[in-house]
């Protein structure tokens, strides 16, 4: 803490410095002034919490200094030190909220007691000031959130209490319940994606500051965040003002600030802002993204497209067979047909419908193929160029990539399943080599065609199932022949041959020796 001593007599200043126990009271810096004028300069520079002042001084006396301190609303505690028990001095000290009044010569106990009480009171008031400041800051920060919620309920559900229009008139100079207003929408997603890496909070903060500054200057209305829709900034503009001129100004101000073209949907003046919102929302959702002209500041009813949406579900069979074929080319041909139709009606509504239907198809096919994977996210895909305009080419490329991802996922899963099935067949052959196994038996057991099994087995292991069975039997026979107590016919029977001569013939063909010759050459 800091303290200042203001007195034209040097020995008085030195006396206060000497008698006060500064360290005990937490005061680490002290300053001196010879009169009120010098004190003013030092107070402005150092802002002391405790000030001692004499009453009779040249240039600016103690009363004038107290008056100045009161007018400047300083939070310091002032202790008057005077050699006079003058009623006028005391009255002035009380009038200008002096904390205490000490008489010269100064009593050390009275001085330190006054300092202790002044410091304690200043700290208590400072704590209250901090709490008040934090409370004010919290209220200030919460107020936009409060209006976002209240006004979103009003425009979306037409729900509001009777006091809201009065508060709006007082707060924003506009009463939607008592005057016609235009409800206009700004689509913030391109700004969020391009400028803030998808952070919508930062995009709203930036654009709301621009909009509300302009609307407040013109006393024309208010801008707020629609809590019911993640990409809509809403403008309520009084009919007293020219909506077109305000929107042109906002469009220009936003472009100047973020260097991006934003989409603004302008509703007509209405005495029901819920109805006005539905109108502007239709403009925003149904306008053709590929037909936006940069030179125009906002969209109107004329920009609503009545073209039917391209439905993915209408092409589900074509897509299904293209995916089942495993051919990227076939899939691309189907997609191109769909994308060509979608481009003619490419709106925010079209994109949402596409994403919803793609999610349904994706989930269906993943379930059919028993694949554990999540459908692609559609909400945060960036289809916009750096200047904020929509790119149909990016949209097409993203959609193709999503389907390519799906077909690769399904093909990979199908290949893995097939690989697992062929592996299981080989394990089955290994475990049943003693039996009279036929290709037909295997086909029936694994619910696969003989042709498919033969082809995939040869691809996977480089040999036919017949060769595989033969090699397993011969290797097992070699092991059994190491046992001198087993007869050749017993070995033959153990590896699946009922005829000893046939076994010997097969063994010689594979090994180059008869079973007996092979056994005779084994080390003893």
UniProtKB/TrEMBL annotation:
<dbReference type="InterPro" id="IPR051552">
    <property type="entry name" value="HptR"/>
</dbReference>
<feature type="domain" description="Response regulatory">
    <location>
        <begin position="2"/>
        <end position="119"/>
    </location>
</feature>
<dbReference type="Pfam" id="PF00072">
    <property type="entry name" value="Response_reg"/>
</dbReference>
<keyword id="KW-0805">Transcription regulation</keyword>
<dbReference type="GO" id="GO:0005737">
    <property type="term" value="C:cytoplasm"/>
</dbReference>
<protein>
    <submittedName>
        <fullName>Helix-turn-helix domain-containing protein</fullName>
    </submittedName>
</protein>
<dbReference type="GO" id="GO:0000160">
    <property type="term" value="P:phosphorelay signal transduction system"/>
</dbReference>
<feature type="modified residue" description="4-aspartylphosphate">
    <location>
        <position position="54"/>
    </location>
</feature>
<keyword id="KW-0963">Cytoplasm</keyword>
<dbReference type="Pfam" id="PF12833">
    <property type="entry name" value="HTH_18"/>
</dbReference>
<dbReference type="InterPro" id="IPR018060">
    <property type="entry name" value="HTH_AraC"/>
</dbReference>
<dbReference type="InterPro" id="IPR020449">
    <property type="entry name" value="Tscrpt_reg_AraC-type_HTH"/>
</dbReference>
<keyword id="KW-0597">Phosphoprotein</keyword>
<feature type="domain" description="HTH araC/xylS-type">
    <location>
        <begin position="423"/>
        <end position="521"/>
    </location>
</feature>
<dbReference type="GO" id="GO:0003700">
    <property type="term" value="F:DNA-binding transcription factor activity"/>
</dbReference>
<dbReference type="GO" id="GO:0043565">
    <property type="term" value="F:sequence-specific DNA binding"/>
</dbReference>
<keyword id="KW-0804">Transcription</keyword>
<dbReference type="InterPro" id="IPR018062">
    <property type="entry name" value="HTH_AraC-typ_CS"/>
</dbReference>
<dbReference type="InterPro" id="IPR001789">
    <property type="entry name" value="Sig_transdc_resp-reg_receiver"/>
</dbReference>
<dbReference type="InterPro" id="IPR009057">
    <property type="entry name" value="Homeodomain-like_sf"/>
</dbReference>
<dbReference type="InterPro" id="IPR011006">
    <property type="entry name" value="CheY-like_superfamily"/>
</dbReference>
<keyword id="KW-0902">Two-component regulatory system</keyword>
<keyword id="KW-0238">DNA-binding</keyword>
């Amino acid at each position: 803490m800091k303290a200042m001593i203001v007195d034209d007599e040097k020995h008085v200043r030195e006396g206060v410095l000497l008698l006060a126990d500064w360290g005990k009271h937490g005061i680490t810096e002290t300053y001196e002034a010879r009169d009120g004028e010098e004190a003013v300069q030092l107070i402005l520079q150092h802002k002391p919490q405790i000030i001692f002042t004499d009453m009779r001084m040249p240039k600016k006396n103690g009363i004038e200094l107290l008056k100045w301190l009161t007018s400047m609303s300083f939070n310091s505690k002032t202790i008057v030190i005077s050699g006079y028990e003058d009623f006028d001095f005391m009255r002035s000290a009380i009038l200008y909220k002096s904390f205490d009044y000490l008489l010269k010569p100064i009593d050390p106990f009275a001085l330190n007691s006054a300092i202790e009480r002044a410091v304690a009171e200043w700290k208590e008031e400072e704590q209250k000031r901090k709490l008040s400041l934090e409370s004010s800051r919290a209220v200030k920060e919460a107020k936009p959130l409060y209006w976002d919620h209240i006004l979103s309920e009003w425009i979306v559900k037409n729900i509001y209490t009777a006091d809201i229009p009065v508060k709006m008139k007082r707060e924003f100079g506009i009463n939607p319940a008592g005057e016609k207003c235009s409800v206009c929408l700004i689509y913030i997603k391109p700004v969020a994606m391009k400028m803030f890496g998808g952070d919508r909070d930062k995009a709203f903060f930036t654009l709301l500051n621009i909009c509300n500054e302009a609307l407040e200057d013109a006393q024309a209305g208010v801008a707020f965040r629609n809590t019911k829709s993640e990409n809509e900034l809403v403008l309520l503009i009084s009919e007293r003002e020219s909506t077109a001129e305000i929107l042109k100004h906002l469009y220009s101000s936003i472009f100047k600030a973020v260097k991006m073209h934003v989409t603004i949907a302008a509703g007509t003046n209405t005495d029901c802002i819920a109805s006005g919102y539905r109108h502007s929302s239709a403009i925003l959702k149904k306008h053709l993204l590929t037909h936006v002209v940069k030179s125009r500041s906002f969209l109107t009813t004329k920009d609503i497209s009545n073209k039917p949406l391209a439905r993915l579900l209408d092409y589900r069979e074509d897509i299904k067979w293209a995916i089942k074929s495993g051919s990227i080319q076939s899939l691309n041909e189907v997609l191109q047909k769909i994308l060509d139709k979608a481009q003619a009606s490419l709106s925010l509504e079209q994109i949402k419908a596409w994403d919803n239907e793609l999610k349904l198809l994706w989930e269906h096919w993943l379930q059919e193929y028993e694949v554990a994977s999540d459908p692609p996210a559609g909400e945060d895909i960036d289809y916009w160029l750096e200047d904020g305009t929509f790119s149909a080419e990016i949209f097409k490329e993203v959609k193709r990539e999503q389907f390519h991802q799906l077909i690769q996922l399904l093909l990979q899963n199908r290949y893995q399943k097939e690989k697992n099935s062929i592996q299981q067949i080989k394990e089955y052959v290994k475990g049943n080599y003693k039996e009279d196994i036929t290709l037909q038996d295997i086909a029936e057991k694994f619910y696969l065609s003989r042709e498919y099994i033969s082809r995939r087995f040869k691809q996977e292991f480089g040999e036919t199932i017949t060769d595989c069975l033969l090699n397993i039997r011969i290797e097992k026979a070699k092991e059994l022949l190491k046992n001198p107590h087993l007869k050749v016919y017993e070995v033959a029977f153990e590896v699946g041959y009922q005829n000893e001569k046939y076994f010997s013939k097969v063994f010689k063909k594979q090994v180059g020796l008869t079973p007996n010759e092979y056994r005779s050459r084994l080390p003893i």
